[in-house]
Amino acid sequence: VQIAGLAAGLRAVVVAGDALTQSMGRLNTALGSVERAGEIYDRLYRDSLQTGVAVRESVDAFARFSIAAREIGATSDQVVRLVTGLQRVAIVSGASTGEISSVILQLAQALASGVLQGDELRSILETMPLLAEGLARELGVSIGELRKLGSEGKLTAERVFPALLRAT
Questions:
Q1: DSSP state of 85
Q2: How far apart are CA 60 and CA 26, in angstroms?
Q3: What is the tens place of the pLDDT at every residue in 83-108?
Q4: Dihedral, CA atoms, 160, 73, 26, 91, nearest 10 degrees?
Q5: Which residues on adjacent β-strands are paired with residue 115?
Q6: Closest Cα partner for 131 from 164, 99, 102?
């Protein structure tokens, strides 16, 4: 029994080490610097302890949002603020960790494509109404107008990213 417990513990350490290595690799790719990747990982890790969202999920979200951030000139610090802000809003909204991951993935895909519309916008409206309200407020529109702007392709990454930062 003790040997089985020790083996299980060792497997857990190996899995955790692999997850850390993969996360650091993703951050290094996104940031181009091992030192900066370590700094960002530490911030995401601390925020994950507060939110209960797995650090790997935070790293994945950071890597996805980094693509859109580079296109619009946003900084890695702003991306960290966005990721943790989104996670906190999602938790307050009562979203499950699966829903949080799904919405963050869809939002990151939308911003990377340059425009928030269609299924991505609908997902935010349905799963994270507090975020949708905050985004609409920051853009100076109602939820109905937010839907309309999305259907018209007017919710560009350049417009949405800063509004999300302020809303979260």
A1: H
A2: 8
A3: 999 888 888 888 887 888 888 888 98
A4: -30
A5: 156
A6: 164
The pair of three-digit structure tokens given for residue 63, joined into one six-digit string: 């890597």
- The token duo for 102 is 């799904």
Burial 131-150 (b: 16+ CB within 10 A, else e): bbbbbbebbeeeeeebbebb
pTM of the model: 0.78
What is the maximal distance between C-alpha atoms in the chain?
Answer: 63
Contact 48, 70 (CB under 8 A): no
On whether the CB atoms of residues 87 and 51 are closer than 8 A, the answer is yes
Amino acid code (one letter) for 18? D
Backbone angles phi, psi at 32, to 5 degrees: 75, 15
CA distance 146 to 121: 9
